[in-house]
Amino acid sequence: MRIVIAEDDALLREGLALLLRAESLDVVATTDAPAPFLAAVDEHRPDVAIVDVRMPPTHTDEGIVAAVEARRRHPDLAVLVLSAYVEQAFATDLLAGGAQGLGYLLKERVGRVEEFLAALHRVADGGTAVDPEVVGQLLARSRPDSTLSRLSPRERDVLALMAEGLGNTAVAERLFVTEGAVHKHIRSIFAKLDLAPDDRADRRVTAVLRYLEDTQRRR
């Protein structure tokens, strides 16, 4: 696995690099700002980018913007975003762009080495890794009845593939059904989860977050 790290905190950046290299992972570049990060991604074509949310010069959303741009340039790039605390808008924006090969973790998880490495490998394999604390806060305003018990087995299958970042066409191909059938299932999922069309949050993102919350609760 080839990895590029973008983190402006030198201690954390070098600590991550040492940790990953000790696991026989190939850290091909470490950077401390968006521009050199994008240059490193273009040059080395890594499998995974580990990116801090807040980076120079303003320490607001530069990391997220750079991660989105890196994925635009290299759609197969997996991205694991690290944040000191939950950035609700940023997490939602990332997931809205497709959850496949995407992770969003709080930095405190890095200290839990096994969990962190498991999340990194899951993202590299095309899966999704969202910090439980992130999921909890993003769903804090949801209805108390946010479980998926009302969904049919087929609707759960559809939602699980949505959580992997698949679009409707890809979901239809995986399940050997028509795209129209997938649309029908998704409409039913939204209805059963009480996600109205005028909700301010993206309904697809919210449905995926509820699936992730339910999955974590069952572990």
Automatic annotation (TrEMBL):
Domain Response regulatory span(s) in chain numbering: 2-122
InterPro entries membership: CheY-like_superfamily (IPR011006), NreC/VraR/RcsB-like_REC (IPR058245), Sig_transdc_resp-reg_C-effctor (IPR016032), Sig_transdc_resp-reg_receiver (IPR001789), Tscrpt_reg_LuxR_C (IPR000792), WalR-like (IPR039420)
Modified residues annotated as 4-aspartylphosphate in this record: D52
Limits of the HTH luxR-type domain: 144-211
Listed Pfam families: GerE, Response_reg
CDD domains the UniProt entry points to: LuxR_C_like, REC_NarL-like
Phosphoprotein listed as a keyword: yes
GO molecular function list: DNA binding
GO biological process, one term: phosphorelay signal transduction system
Keywords recorded for this protein, A-Z: DNA-binding, Phosphoprotein, Transcription, Transcription regulation
Record's protein name: Response regulator transcription factor
Species for this entry: Dactylosporangium aurantiacum
Lineage: Bacteria, Bacillati, Actinomycetota, Actinomycetes, Micromonosporales
